[in-house]
Input
Amino acid sequence: MADSGLLLNFDLTDQPLKRQVKYTGGRWRDRVSAQRSAKRNGDGQSTGTNATPLSANRRDHNPSLPDDIGNDRPAKRQRIQGDSRQERHDVSSRSVSYMTGKLPPGSISSGPKNPNQGSKPGGVTSRLFTSNPTPKTVFEDPVEDVEPAAPSNAPLSDEAENFHALGLSRRIAQHLFAKLEMKAPTSIQKNTIPLLIKEDSDAFLQAQTGSGKTLAYLLPIVQRIMAMSLSEDGSNAGVRIHRDSGLFAIVLAPTRELCKQIATVLEKVLRCAPWIVSTTVIGGESKKSEKARLRKGVNILVATPGRLADHLDNTKVLDVGTVRWLVLDEGDRLMEMGFEDELKSIVSKIRKEELRGSNKDGVKFDQLPQRRVTVLCSATMKRNVQKLGEISLQDAAHITGTTSENSGEDATEVDEAVFAAPSQLKQTYLIVPGKLRLVTLIALLKSSFARRGSIMKAIIFISCADSVDFHFDLFRNGSTRSAPPAKSALIDNTVADAAYITSPANPTVALLKLHGSLPQPVRTATLNSFRTTNDPCVLITTDIASRGLDVPAVDLVVEYDPAFSVDDHTHRIGRTARAGRPGKAVLFIQPGCEEGYIGLLNSTASSVAPQSYESTLQKGFFSPITLPKTEKETDPTTLVSDKQTPNSRAEALQLHIEQRLLATEKEGSNSKLLDSARQAFRSHIRAYATHVRDERQYFDITQLHLGHTAKSYGLREAPGGIGGGPSRRTFRAGQGKGGEQKGADRNDGDNKASSKRRADDDDIPAVDDAAAMRMRMKMKEVMNVASEFNIG
Output
């Protein structure tokens, strides 16, 4: 063979070949430092350090060193492997490491079996009780109340106090007593009903949640309309009022769910006067059918501001010349959700129309107010409510539930009032580290349903819609809950049987979810199912259910994610302890800066008690945990750990959840639980940055450990892409042909402005209504991640 002329010259020195080591894990600064140290040693320019490069497989040879860090760099914190006692890290040193999203060494490890853990030898151990920050709160032994506190929002017990004595007709009073089982009025009803019946002045109603504000303004309206059709003895005097006699009252509420609830209460009251007709016009429903109802005639209209403003502009049959009452319910929420322009337009158009004293049939309205009366209802007198009062009220009387003296001064000049929770409500806040949040929530629910009849209905408030979807899919059992055929299609994906939280006393617990991204018919059916069910049930929801909703027999409210403001917290816990019933509220707080948030809560010191997560785990995991059924399983299975202790059960449960998420990705399951967990984590972090400015010091995102927070979503490390924008186009539920949005995120998004916003924001991930509206109002005050929210 001919010589190709290629010469190879290998120059081998006497120095041994140096193996290239790839540095992985840890922080990038540590990896760079180790690489530089290794390079200096290799070039003979060492500065005297004895750094030794570490690879991933050499970590077990020198366990005393941190991950991938040389000996020349001291460990950031001293930690004993497997020991749960940790010194609290300094805040300044934590802020950088928390944002890395990497779990601390030892949080997830593989290798020999630890005798303190309940996993199998050689498997992955999910360590929950190491590297947790130490809380500042000092826990004391709970003191049992000798006597329960007297209810502050219960009906009056005085026998002389009845609805007939307040000025209502015997027909209405007897209907309330016999059909609605209402024997006596509440304090706010006693102070409001006589004033609105006898006088024609504006009023500002301020009372605790669950005290009966809805009936306080509805009963006087019904009474004065009925007075035109009934004689003094209550008998029919030739009914002259019918649905075509005119529109007499308009009630505005911020959410569709609250409008539905007000309409339901009004329909029950109007059963004693069937000739008076009421209806609703809200977003998410057909405008054509609403116009048809308005064309037939209506006497009392319940509406959301956006849809009512739309009808005032485009529906000619809507005549407001006979309107006597304009009620603004939940005034603070109306302003927070950005309805100021719509409210100004509605008030100006109603006042601009000349007030008629009779209708087209010649019926005179002598029994009705001779001027337009505005009633504003709000729990607090905040600045935005004062502004709304300036727009709508004129010489209004300020009426509260604590005094019978009604001041004649302008309600807009009253100092901002502090709104307290009902006295019979027992409030507790749990100090829970980020890694233990999920297992503590399960333990709390499991212990709550451990006894039959102790807790019948519970509500869990979560910050964003994506997180609601994830927790619902995680907690649901393999088979969906059976439902009536007429409603099964609507609640197929929102109602199911719960897993993990059942007990021998309550083997079946219903699980429901509710948020603003669901289509309106689904939201209505789900909420109705929660109201009417007689079985123990848990509703996982966002702030969409925090205002005004009256659900009977709600015994427990859990704030898994703290509210975005103290006022929202007050309304959340107001879903329980209503109308004199007892109730319990639990708030989850993480150790550190969040503990300062407790001082802002508007509650007495005796009614709020701190509690450690350890006692909750002891109660919840005292008995075995029933795992959810899969499609192949027919019988439920029980979680078993090698060491049957509450802590070992908690770690075994966390490991089971993590493996369950990974299994959905490997098996190609349709549930996509892992993707749901990652999206929920991203939305949760973005929502965490939307707390109001005054409270953001307690919810500092720079102090939030992303790795520990990821553990609470069943993830083994924090996913990326939190602030980098959406990676895929997200279609909301209920989107029709041509991009038509049927399930709007905003509770009343059917006005022109909101329709344009939805068209522009179709590719932004969905979060909850309250967070989205707050982002719109405070867009310039929050971080750059604000653009990631669905503000539709």
